[in-house]
Design a protein that fits this description.
Length: 360
């Protein structure tokens, strides 16, 4: 009897709301759990904007319809994966969404290392990333690598600002690096081979201690990574070689997660990625200027390489493009198509290389 009376009251209430034009309570939002991974802590331009721009933009996009809400698990700074481990974390489903750094995966993502076979390229951040984004769409074999690791590439290409050298002793010419141990991500070995220097694989978060302990004499990195991590405390000499700004990876979603998302979630993610790309590239320019200004206030000794010395360094490296193409084609990959597309894409942006790596 009580249950029946309650049902009658509920029906009457609904009828009343309709009769008087009172809106009925909205349907409850459906909650979707998403784990976002970045091995870097939020002190670098891209990781800052994952939190500041990307995730809020996804939430804002969903709020327009109000049908879904995401419960985020934000795994930053090694909480789930260290830098270079994110690709595997997303592949295995430990994370649903996040940064996947090709710079640390030359064996798994070989075609994406093309920029490291063509150094001394654009110094404007974002140019290389724009070219790489287009290549991944234009060359199916290139874009297909993400699917091999159970991922959907959604954009957000990361191209840090220009790579230079932080060292414990002065470097004023290519001759000065002979016998030195230069640390850097795996692909930066191309920029050292032929100079007489020894390349040591290191990561951004390890460089400070590696320089302090003497494990390396110098590191190849960008100013927006070096200054926040205070490399100037252990490596006061900065050689502005201008190796260029290269593609380091982007944002991917686990394929199984992606296939399980309703269209509203997919659309919101893409809206967030677009907002991130705009904010990140704008911020990178600002951060670069601020980082150089901050560096000049330390006791760092900054030396800018003359153009003729950059050309000397480029010529000391051997035929990087030719060697890269041969290595790719030995694996059955379209190395020539990728290198030509990359070099011509950069040239189309108005940049001239000091050495035509694709024509040797």
């Amino acid at each position: 009897m009580i249950k029946r009376f309650g049902a009658v009251l509920a029906a009457a209430a609904l009828a009343a709301t309709a009769a008087f034009g009172i809106a009925a309570p909205a349907m409850a939002q459906k909650s979707v759990n998403i784990t976002f991974v970045s091995g870097h802590p939020p002190i670098l331009p891209w990781s800052i904007h994952y939190l500041k721009t990307l995730i809020p933009a996804v939430d804002a996009s969903l709020a327009k319809e109000g049908k879904y809400v995401i419960k985020w698990n934000k795994a930053f700074g090694g909480a789930l994966a260290k830098p270079g481990e994110e690709l595997e974390a997303i592949q295995e489903g430990l994370a649903d969404f996040g940064q996947a750094l090709t710079i640390f995966e030359p064996a798994k993502m070989p075609l994406h290392t093309v920029g490291y076979a063509a150094p001394f390229q654009p110094t404007a951040p974002g140019v290389a990333a724009q070219v790489m984004e287009k290549l991944q769409k234009d060359i199916p074999e290139m874009g297909a690598f993400w699917g091999k690791y159970n991922q959907i590439y959604v954009g957000g290409g990361i191209a840090a600002d220009v790579f230079n050298i932080w060292s414990t002793k002065p470097i004023h010419s290519v001759d000065d690096v002979k016998g030195m141990k230069l640390g850097g991500a795996p692909p930066t070995a191309n920029w050292v081979n032929g100079t007489g220097a020894i390349h040591v694989i290191t990561g951004l978060s390890e460089n400070y201690n590696n320089l302090k302990s003497g494990l390396v004499d110098a590191v190849i990195l960008f100013v927006t990574g070096a200054v926040p991590n205070k490399y100037y405390e252990v490596a006061k000499h900065v050689a502005v070689v201008d190796f260029g700004s290269t593609f380091g990876g982007g944002l991917t979603v686990n394929k199984d997660s992606w296939n399980g998302y309703p269209q509203e979630i997919k659309t919101a993610i893409m809206d967030g990625v677009h907002a991130f790309e705009v904010a990140f590239n704008n911020q990178l320019l600002v951060n670069g200027e601020k980082a150089w200004a901050a560096l000049k206030k330390t006791d760092s000794v900054i030396y800018k390489f003359p153009e003729e010395e950059r050309i000397r360094w480029a010529k000391a490296l051997g035929p990087l493009g030719k060697n890269w193409v041969a290595a790719m084609e030995k694996k059955g990959l379209p190395g020539r198509k990728v290198l030509d597309g990359y070099m011509n894409g950069i040239r189309a942006k108005g940049y001239k290389f000091p050495r035509d790596w694709d024509k040797e």
